[in-house]
Amino acid sequence: MKSKDAFLKKAKNKQLVICVIGLGYVGLPLAEAYTRQGIKVIGYDINPVRIEQMKAGKSGMLHIADERVAKMIDSGLFEPSADENVLASADALLICVPTPLDEHHNPDLSYVISTCHKLKTHLRPGQIVILESTTYPGTTEQIMTPILEESGLVAGEDFAMAYSPEREDPGNAHYETSTIPKLVGADSEAEREMADATYRDIVKTVLVPNTRVAEAAKLTENIFRWVNIGLVNELKMVFDKMNIDVWEVIKAADSKPFGYMAFYPGPGVGGHCIRIDPYYLTWKAREHGVSTRFIELAGEVNIQMPRHVIGRLMEELNIRQKKALAGSKILLAGMAYKPDIDDMRESPSMELLDLLKKNGAHVDYLDSYVPEIPPNHEYPQYAGLKSIKWDEEVIASYDAVLVATDHTDVDYKRLTELAPLIVDSRNISRFVPEKLRDKIAKV
């Protein structure tokens, strides 16, 4: 790598200019980590509204306080921009764009590909391009590099390539960007050194031999969770038939100090990575003539959970209230995919809402973190639907409350007192006195 030494010297002196491409759940905290260390960051995003938010010191995300963004702006180290010409002025280009699935559950790398096409017109010798978005093994080498080399520059000689997967967990109070060890993979020693130097001022790095190992490791982390959640969701359905509380079973099993890790059931699996990563590997495995039966079986279990929950709601309404779901008033408690954040990506609550509506229920939702459902590809018909406000008389008027997300700002004791029936997919009974728990149906 011709300019490795000059790059490493700039990194040592904290003189690198970092460009974070995509200022969402991954990109914004990453940019903040650099500014905290006195390192210049350009934040590039194709959404001009997002850029104006940043310039005004607004994060646009509830779990990231506006004060944090304002501090970045005030430091003079953070420059948000929608002008792609800024790409040429950075030493390190960190790509943090979405990698969703298409309508056939195949990988959609269109955001990565379009970013690379933009980059190739601004690429210059001495830069490093690092993908952080989740993807299948081979993306950096087989998809990104050929596009970038259309610039006339050669990867590994004129510019460097690397893969360093994001490990963000929005709303996690125990871990943030700078406290989560960061995998860094590149296909040559010089590129690994440059990638390591890009990150080591902000986080502990873990170097791996090449980009494929890093890409595969990211998938493995989340497939591990996917499979174990599928297992515990299946156990839940089995134990329900045996009249055994799966939450008590998990608590008991978790007392073992080795050989066991607790996973918890729910109404489905949400979040960008865990819901999507298994399909990235499954798709790539088919290209090599390999089946991923174990992963796909877990998927069958996890994907059917919303329907299972609605089925149990129907049963409880019928048995306890002698009512059909059609025509009943249902309050869906929680739209975000996990507690205490506003992240709606792949939230199972959207499917629950859709199933309730399709079965003839009158549905509202309660979620202070999601005051209004944003535009979304899968369920565009619900964009703009607003959360109800906490009103005791209104809550008491519903036939049942279906708890889909266990936000900690909800008074579950009072909710249980007010509602005639609580259908609980998140074990909120742990917040409720024993004398009220007979109003709660765990599903």
Can you tell me about this structure?
The chain folds into 2 domains: 4-213, NAD(P)-binding Rossmann-like Domain (Rossmann fold, 3-Layer(aba) Sandwich), CATH 3.40.50.720; 266-442, NAD(P)-binding Rossmann-like Domain (Rossmann fold), CATH 3.40.50.720. α8 packs across α10 (272-287). By secondary structure, it is α/β, with parallel strands linked by helices. The longest helix is centred in the middle third of the chain and has 31 residues, at 211-241. The mean pLDDT is 95. It has helices at 4-12, 27-36, 48-55, 66-74, 110-120, 139-148, 189-199, 211-241, 246-253, 272-287, 293-321, 348-358, 392-396, 412-418, and strands at residues 17-21, 40-44, 78-81, 92-95, 128-131, 160-163, 182-185, 205-208, 329-333, 362-366, 400-403, 422-424, 440-442. It is 40% helix and 12% strand.
Provide a concise account of the structure shown.
α8 packs parallel to α11 (293-321) and α11 (293-321) packs across α12. It is built from 14 helices and 13 strands.
